[in-house]
Amino acid sequence: MSKFENNAITWFEVPTTDIERATTFYETILDMKLLAWPGPEPCQMFPMQPGGVGGCLVQRAQQRPASDGALVYLNVDGKLDATLKRAEKAGVKVLVPRTEIPGGYGYYAQMQDSEGNHIGLHSRLF
């Protein structure tokens, strides 16, 4: 089966107005390096494993950041508390602190990114 058959989500894009600022923000908060994607529009991809769900930061005139649109959860498995500490150090507004998901599904938190998007974080452990 392909990832299209196994997952409800196959790709996501987080809109930016300043791709460099957003790249620095996510690399700092998530403690990882994003990958530049060649193409006509500025795009930085989140690292992913083969067969996994992928996504990117993108800067397009027709897409604007929003705090009231779709909510994407990024995987920070085992690093939720460390990610939130880096976020707070960077002056990020944490909208929902670490919260346990009933039924053994781990923990989540939500924050506002450097562009004004509402972004979730998910981890099985904190």
Q: What do these coordinates show?
A:
- The chain has three helices and eight strands; from the N terminus they run αβαββββαβββ.
- It is an alpha/beta fold.
- Strands 1-4-3-2 form a four-stranded mixed beta sheet. Strands 5-8-7-6 form a four-stranded mixed beta sheet, covered by helices on one side.
- The chain starts with a helix and ends with a strand.
- Helix content is 21%, strand content 31%.
- It has one domain: Roll (2,3-Dihydroxybiphenyl 1,2-Dioxygenase, domain 1), CATH 3.10.180.
- The mean pLDDT is 91.
- It is globular.
- It has helices spanning 3-6, 19-30, 80-89; strands at 11-15, 35-36, 43-45, 54-58, 72-75, 93-100, 107-112, 118-123.
Secondary structure blueprint with pairings:
Layout: H1 3-6, E1 11-15, H2 19-30, E2 35-36, E3 43-45, E4 54-58, E5 72-75, H3 80-89, E6 93-100, E7 107-112, E8 118-123
Parallel strand pairs: 1-4, 5-8
Antiparallel strand pairs: 2-3, 3-4, 6-7, 7-8
Task: Please describe the structure with a list of short key phrases separated by commas or semicolons.
126 residues; alpha/beta; four-stranded mixed sheet; 3 helices; globular
Fourth-tier CATH superfamily name: 2,3-Dihydroxybiphenyl 1,2-Dioxygenase, domain 1
Based on DSSP secondary structure assignment, what is the total number of beta strands?
A: 8
Give the overall pLDDT as a whole number. 91
CATH class value: Alpha Beta
Give, in spatial order, the strands making up the sheet with the most strands.
Answer: 1-4-3-2
Number of helices, where a helix is a run of at least 4 consecutive DSSP H or I residues: 3
Spans of at least 5 consecutive residues with low confidence: none
- In the CATH hierarchy, the third-tier topology is known as 2,3-Dihydroxybiphenyl 1,2-Dioxygenase, domain 1
* Secondary-structure-derived class: alpha/beta
CATH-derived architecture:
Roll
Strand content: 25-35%
Q: How is the biggest beta sheet arranged?
A: 4 strands, mixed
Give the helix level as a range of percent.
Answer: 10-25%
Order of helices and strands: HEHEEEEHEEE
Shape call: globular
What is the domain total for the residues? Answer: 1
Distance between the termini: 31 Å
Radius of gyration: 14 Å
